[in-house]
Write a structure and sequence with these properties.
This protein has 772 residues and is of the alpha/beta class. It contains 30 helices and 34 strands. The chain folds into four domains: 138 residues, Barwin-like endoglucanases, CATH 2.40.40.20; 66 residues, no CATH class; 268 residues, Rossmann fold, CATH 3.40.50.740; 201 residues, Dimethylsulfoxide Reductase, domain 2. The strands form ten sheets. The chain has a six-stranded mixed barrel with strand order 26-33-30-32-31-34. A six-stranded mixed β-sheet has the order 7-6-19-18-17-8, with helices on both faces. 58% of the residues are buried.
Length: 772
Amino acid sequence: MKKIETTHTELTPEEFTGLSTEAPKEVAVGLPAVVSSFKHVLGEMNIGRGMKALLNLNQKDGFDCPSCAWPDPDDERSAIAEYCENGAKAVAEEATTKRLTEDFFAQHSIDELGTWSDYELSQRGRIAQPMYKPKGASHYEPISWEGVFKKIATHLNQLPSPDEAIFYTSGRTSNEAAFLYQLFVREFGTNNLPDCSNMCHESSGVALKDTVGIGKGSVKLEDFYKSDLIIIAGQNPGTNHPRMLSALEKAKKSGAKIISVNPLRETGLVAFSNPQTAAGLLGKKTPLSDLFLQVRLNGDVPLFKAILKLLREAELEGREVFDWAFIREKTAGIEDLLEDLKNYDLGQLVQDAGLSLAEIKEAVEMIIASQNIIICWAMGLTQHKNAVDNIQEVVNLLLLKGSIGKPGAGTCPVRGHSNVQGDRTMGIWEMPPKEFLDSLQKRFGFEPPTKHGYNVVDAIKAMHEGKAKVFFAMGGNFLSATPDTVYTAQALRNCSLTAHVSTKLNRSHLVTGEEALILPCLGRTDRDIQNGEVQFVTVENSMGVVHQSKGNLSPISERMLSEPDIVRRLAKATLGAKSRVEWDRLLSHYDHIREAIEQTIPGFENYNERVRVPGGFYLPNGAREGDFKTTTGKANFTVNRYTPFVLSSDEYLMMTIRSHDQYNTTIYGLNDRYRGIQNERRVVMMNEKDMEKADLKAGDVVDLYNYSGRHKRVAHKFIIVPYSIPEKCLATYFPETNALVPIDSYADKSMTPTSKTVVVQIKKAPKFKKIF
């Protein structure tokens, strides 16, 4: 009998904050979003600083939103409010005038801070100076910047191999900082560059690269206004990408239909009140979804297979469904796909999708009637074991309809972090292509390592097993973002040094190696001055537009450095005279960094000139032009397997999701306004029929269990909330339930953790009565 080890969420507070519930909202944004935006901004700074920030947010001569990667319009932009509610919250968090000085860290031990919630940690303000935790110490203490880089360099240079160091990157790092960062890491001698892409759209990149030749989406924002049909699958734009709602409204007015596929009937998929108009502020709404398919968790592959099967039947009946001219000229593999569809029973596919045949047939008729189709998706498709198959089925549908490589049609993976796509373009990847490494060698004169490095899952395992001893994070909240929280925490504790480049305090600063450092950096809103001249950086949005971002606020501390300068100083301290890179010249003006990028990465010709054009420029995109750079030279149909989950009577599939007062691991507040869940995060959204079968009632306090491998994972003290969700499916917020996501459960090919399909059991918590 195998040994069972128990892990649980001891790393996060398990206190309730006062749950109240109401009916979910029927319309997104409108006046409540405006009120919420200004409430958050004015709660963090005075009105002058707040308005100065908001009026420059997402403007062509301003700074890029530090929140999501949804693109700005190429043409008209609102002069006063080219941002959304969560963008305003992100700016409020970053531009706050609250400061964490050395006195704060002297007053509060690391253990005490560990008892605070993520929300409480983030509300204390910007970190104002570098901090250091010595070995065995209970508190952080101040340290000079010279001491910071000497400490890191000593640890790195004492490693027996460069591969024992891990260099993580979050998605908000600028192109300039990301390029320098990977340059330093590779000159140091490793490709250990895991990043947040590994946990979100890695599955998209793998699927798209194999099928259409580029791991990015193929559409521009203007394509939404030329589309006949937009399918939104596994995405919640109302909370995660609110500015997308304006594009959907405009698309509807241009005649597009919308199909939404999601386990939750999210408000942002239902209707939208545009706050840019007087009517929208007064409550006038635009209905969005023409058809809503409330699919089961991981029901996407059977749904799309059922759609493909019905499309094939309609084609065999003599209806003009497939774009055969496009298929014959531009694609490969159609015969294998059509042959494979014969192997599936339509009734079983419909059942596994959790829908009715009538609903799927309605979707099929909308698809048949459409010539130009866009399919958008996010984590709802990418965080399953069969995530790559999910996305390749999406591509199959688009290829059958000839809906890639023409206006109004194509693939649209909607990225999360504001520059996560740009970071990958800059070389933040553990598996760099040979052409990129050859370019680095030609430009800089050193030989980069060719051995593949660690992705996020591999990095956690390497630290856990003692194979990696130094962890350096360029932004992010690694512990709270990753799976299997207690396992990951032990991995970090096994390190000799953990170091984080950060703006705000987060839980990753409280679970450390023997020694730990916090390196405070400038944010997007901060004015960045190098050699007496204000600099700008550049970013890439979800649709491949590279544009500038220039902060306009005075930093709240003189002891913060820009991310490029942090990399420069780290590289010089670590590599010394051995380095072949002209670090000081590159940092003397960021134009020099962009010149180096231009000389290294295709698509950045005349970088400094083109990025100074208001709005920036588009990177080359073969799929957008119908030029598919795959192994066959064509877009590839794929045959994708489907194995349904088999659950026992006491098991459920759980997905982790964000609340509306949240962006990734940053908690802005305790309310999930659209879902009607107020002042609480420790909740389990559950189907009422499942509740009845399990003898559970609204307000019951339960513990959640996951059994995988040799571990029993437990997340304690969650409140049952009845919700409209398919049977045998649950929804919970992350990071509170990340402890239940097994480290060894990840997507085939991409190794993305399966945060949307976690098998759990529910047990009533002892000593607790109903909360409400």
